[in-house]
Amino acid sequence: MKLCIFGAGAIGGLMAAKLAAKGDVDVTVIARGPHLAAMQANGLKLVSDGQEMVVRPRCVASAEEAGPQDYVLVTLKAHSLPGAAKQMQPLLGENTAIVSAINGIPWWYFHKLAGPYEDRRVASVDPDGSVWDLLHPSRVIGCVVYPAAEVPEPGVIEHTYGDRFTLGEPDGTRSERANALSAALVAAGFKAPVRPKIRDEMWVKLWGNMAFNPLSALTTATLDIITGDPELRAVCRQMMLEGQAIAERLGVRFAIDVDKRIAGGAEVGAHKTSMLQDLERGRPMEVDALLGSVVELAEIVEVPAPTCRIVLALLRTRARLAGCY
Ligand SMILES: NC(=O)C1=CN([C@@H]2O[C@H](COP(=O)(O)OP(=O)(O)OC[C@H]3O[C@@H](n4cnc5c(N)ncnc54)[C@H](OP(=O)(O)O)[C@@H]3O)[C@@H](O)[C@H]2O)C=CC1
Ligand SMILES: CC(C)(CO)C(=O)C(=O)O
């Protein structure tokens, strides 16, 4: 199996390290800057559970060097995708599958979603529709990322939590390509269930990200405060209820209720969300993938989302003024 990880930072680096360590997948990593230079010079170091290992997958700067693949795992931040989709073309052969391991509503969300919205495009994450055209959704296997990881220094991945990457075809079928990828990830030490309703799974993750992340960036509060302070928790809960109404209009079924999902966030404790971390580091924030897209979907299905709209307006201004949007 030839597999390329495009944008191998924290999550992609974690996947690359464990897949390469197993040895039976031909792994190529595409990265850039000092992180790429460090991996090329010293290998890719993974620190996980107090253990360190160094692997040496092929690390390159461009898709031309990697050539056509069986699988392309896209582990970019959502806002990097429109700029990178063209660069990925040399990775795509006739049957190459693309796995989008990216938080938020993906560009392919409406592909094969039976009903009135089938094949609509999501402008928040694919403003000119070029991601859809270049990375056609028929190639896509959906993926929900549960682990947490960081890049504390170039070439080094620190894995802090979790081992599950839930997979699923947009049309809910159990395909050979999804099964084969799942088997490779399981062999590498991950959990990788293939689920028939990948959008349901996606929303449970997004449910937290659409509320916790913006509120943390606006207030600088950690998750324990967002979920524990009564006033802030009420705003968070209201955003999530709006998200639930939007998702349910699109056919999503939530297996847990909103208070259980908030309790799940509370368990993470005094953690800075990834959006707050990006803001503090002056890096672009996933504003549109995590909340702009939710408001866009609210407009499409004509469900009111007043709290999400207010928070989105505040967040965009916060992010713009910080140079992160
Ligand atoms: N990290 C985490 O714990 C979790 C992350 N996620 C989600 O996973 C996704 C990936 O996040 P994460 O791994 O943290 O992000 P990172 O920023 O760590 O990784 C993305 C990498 O892609 C690189 N990159 C960007 N554009 C290009 C390009 N054109 N060519 C080559 N490399 C490129 C970036 O380089 P550069 O740094 O130079 O921009 C960076 O190294 C996000 O959607 C995130 O929300 C989900 C759950 C947890
Ligand atoms: C907040 C958290 C831990 C869960 O929603 C997360 O996924 C993030 O920081 O982006």
Report what the structure shows.
This protein is of the alpha/beta class and 325 residues long. It has 2 domains: 2-196, Rossmann fold, CATH 3.40.50.720; 199-321, N-(1-d-carboxylethyl)-l-norvaline Dehydrogenase, domain 2, CATH 1.10.1040. It has 13 helices and 11 strands. The protein has helices at residues 10-22, 33-42, 63-66, 81-84, 130-134, 176-187, 198-219, 223-228, 230-249, 258-268, 274-281, 287-301, 306-321, and strands spanning 2-6, 26-30, 44-48, 51-55, 58-60, 69-74, 92-100, 140-145, 148-153, 156-161, 165-168. The longest helix has 22 residues, at 198-219. Residues 7, 9-12, 30-33, 35, 75-78, 80, 84, 87, 101-103, 145, 148-149, 151, 274, 286 line the site of NADPH dihydro-nicotinamide-adenine-dinucleotide phosphate.
List the defining traits of the structure above.
single chain; 325 residues; seven-stranded mixed beta sheet; Rossmann fold; 13 helices; binds ketopantoate; alpha/beta; four-stranded mixed beta sheet; binds NADPH dihydro-nicotinamide-adenine-dinucleotide phosphate; N-(1-d-carboxylethyl)-l-norvaline Dehydrogenase, domain 2
Describe the structure concisely for a colleague.
The protein is an alpha/beta fold.
**What is the CATH topology assignment of the largest domain?**
Rossmann fold
What integer value in Å does the Rg equal? 19 Å
Oligomer: single chain
Strand composition percent: 15-25%
Please give the largest β-sheet. Answer: 7 strands, mixed
Helix content: 40-55%
User: Residue-averaged pLDDT, rounded?
Assistant: 97
Number of domains: 2
Number of distinct beta strands: 11
- Please state the second-level CATH architecture of the largest domain: 3-Layer(aba) Sandwich
Order of helices and strands: EHEHEEEHEHEHEEEEHHHHHHHH
**Strand order of the biggest β-sheet:** 5-2-1-6-7-8-11
